[in-house]
Amino acid sequence: MNNPFKFGSVVDEPYFTDRTNELAYIKHSMNSTNHIVLISPRRFGKTSLVKKAIKEINRPSIFINLQMAVSVENLASLLLKEIFKLRPFEKVKHLMTHFRIIPTISTNPFSDAVDVSFQPSLDSTAILEDALALLEKVSSPTNRIITVFDEFQEIMGIEKGLDKRLRAIMQEQQNINYIFLGSQESMMTQIFERKKSPFYHFGMLMHLDKIPYDDFMQYITQRLPLKDDRQTNDIAKDILDTTLCHPYFTQQLASQVWEILTYSDVKENIVKEAVEQLTIIHDLDFERLWMNFNKTDKYIMLNLAHKKQPSSTRSLPTSTIYSSVKRLMQMGYIIKINEYEIEDPFFRNWLIKKQG
Ligand SMILES: Nc1ncnc2c1ncn2[C@@H]1O[C@H](COP(=O)(O)OP(=O)(O)OP(=O)(O)O)[C@@H](O)[C@H]1O
Ligand SMILES: [Mg+2]
User: Fold this and answer.
1) Closest C-alpha residue for ligand 1 atom 6
2) Per-residue pLDDT tens over the stretch 28-38
3) In a mutational test of the pocket of ligand 1, which residue from 11, 37, 150, 249 has the highest number of ligand atoms less than 8 Å from its CB?
4) Are 243 and 211 contacting, i.e. CB atoms less than 8 angstroms apart?
């Protein structure tokens, strides 16, 4: 029997639950000429949701992770590479004859994968314009290519003014729907909600939440390998009390619980046992993270591990606390839903244990 829980990569049926309204909204928007901005903390399910919506409306798409783009030339190469996955180079090369800077294109003879690169150039705008113009040309108004930029906030770090140049090109395009994904809430809202930003209101803003409790409860109880309904419910409840419905960590913990129930003799405190096992597996990582925190970070993390909010800590100046909270959020160690919480329930457990 296969483990019915999945974590760590994009999920679709049968590992996908809820998100009915979000799916409908994305599909609806992609059938118009609008763009979408989708924001959530890391590992909430942005990529899974968008991939599922695209699959259901059966439209061509390309995915670019801006974390992988280190320069404008590099971004243009990534775009071209993705375009060649949709339309073979041989079939579109006649659309590239006007390219102002010619990329080097090579094909791996074994895998047929195409590699694209540009020499560093003085005119990176021309390179980007040409790549995006090709994207527009290979697309069509009746079957618009959905172009997804993951971790879009990274645009601000690639090259100064890139946001302005990108926006100038994109606003002229007719045949593309853009989806901008981002996990840095404050930077994403700066980009799309600040009046002076070139991308101000460029797409419809959507925040992705955790998965609702009742839905996750049903998802877990249907998959646990137990006959006793009450025990099943108690275990599912313990899982969600630990993970607070975080999509990734819930699937990870449920998966570990399933392993224990299926392959071990442990009969009691199953969820506690699974949490312990996962905490031990990550011990070295947590140790390393901890060593890189400064004193204020440590103070805040320890308080949060005991569910004490940063605002209730009075022994440090408020500005010191909040610059640390901001940094910890940017690095993804804490998230804010209604209140601040430690993102990783196993790290939280590790902190509580280390404190004795
Ligand atoms: N709709 C869903 N139903 C059940 N589990 C989900 C769902 N969406 C996400 N998950 C869980 O969360 C994990 C992360 O999903 P995904 O990679 O789509 O998130 P993401 O927000 O794109 O993450 P990242 O910030 O790393 O790019 C999945 O592997 C899965 O375990
Ligand atoms: Mg993702």
Assistant:
1) 247
2) 999 999 999 99
3) 11
4) no
